[in-house]
Amino acid sequence: MAEKKDWTNPSSSEASSPEVLQIENVEHRAAREPAHAEHGPLIDHQIPQADAIQAHPELYWSRIRRLCREPFSEFLGTFILLMFGDGVVAQVVLSGGTKGNYQSISWGWGLGVMLGVYTAGISGAHLNPAVTFANCVFRKFSWKKFPIYMFAQTLGAFCASGVVYANYKSAIDVFEGGPDIRTVGLNTSSAGIFCTYPAPFMTKTGQFFSEFIASTLLMFLIYALKDDGNLGAGNLTPLGLFFIIFGIGACFGWETGYAINLARDFGPRLMSYFLGYGHGVWSAGNYYFWVPMVAPFFGCTFGGWLYDMFLFTGESPINTPWMGLRRLVQPGRAKSVSSSQV
């Protein structure tokens, strides 16, 4: 008869077996984590290729790429976003609506976001400074990376809008009435291809609220898609983001153009200024330009707060004493409490 093993008092060889070590690791992890703690790239900040072995890592460019691939990723992801987004607006506007309509624009921006997220998965595919900011506040994303991400995202949008302009320059010349004519706010103006301008009836308060509510929806739904403690979207997150952007554009895009992204709006706006559209790119809409630069930060932060306040049970400032305010008023005590929980 085979001898029955006593698992309550394992031998040294049994205690060091891979199975026992795995059980101990799981138990240790469960003991130090709160109940219902969720995980995933957005929360744990795991880069899919972080442990991948590079081919010829000793090469100079390989070292540069490994150091800078997160900014490169955000740059190229935002570049793809703007290529499709500004591209579809250019086609609809310059064709006088014969090659598409408003819904085509919603489709184009949705596809741009989806493909941009697939492109920039290495860095987390934020593509939006306000999303990066919300992740710094609620998901422990490094504050040191925030200015780097914002610069890369804005530069990607800036460069992509220049490429779209170069591609459609001949059509813009005809639409505007000449190669040296570039206008803002007229029926024959092409400035709206590159950045957003509000409807004439919008007040400043209305402009801000429109961008705020759209940004709130964006961040709330991003956290819903990435929450594995909820239904979660998993590998279908880019497709879910397509429907989010399409829905925001179809339902809330008319009044201000649903920029909901500093990089998406400011980068192309700056490019259009350099291309000769003049001071009107800043003064149009009673100096509307600052609204899509500021409102998304408030909206995305509020959207993240809403989700964590009422639905999220994982690691978040909301799920700490005083909803995270203790580290502001008692930073030393908050640090000691968090250390004792590890």
Give the DSSP E fraction (strand runs of 2 or more residues).
under 5%
| Rg result | 24 Å
* Total of helices: 14
Largest beta sheet, briefly?
A: none
User: Unreliable segments (pLDDT under 50, ≥5 consecutive)?
Assistant: 10-15, 336-342
Helicity range: 55-70%
Order of helices and strands: HHHHHHHHHHHHHH
Shape label = globular
Q: First CA to last CA: what distance?
A: 45 Å
Alpha-beta content class: mainly alpha
Overall strand count? 0
What would the average pLDDT be, to the nearest integer? 87
Could you describe the 3D structure shown?
- This protein has helices at 12-15, 18-32, 41-44, 60-94, 102-119, 129-138, 146-176, 204-226, 237-252, 262-277, 280-287, 291-310, 326-329, 331-340.
- It is globular.
- The protein is 63% helix and 0% strand.
- It is mainly alpha-helical.
- It is built from 14 helices and no strands.
Top keywords for this entry?
342 residues; mainly alpha; 0% strand
Blueprint (SSEs and pairs):
Blueprint: H1 12-15, H2 18-32, H3 41-44, H4 60-94, H5 102-119, H6 129-138, H7 146-176, H8 204-226, H9 237-252, H10 262-277, H11 280-287, H12 291-310, H13 326-329, H14 331-340
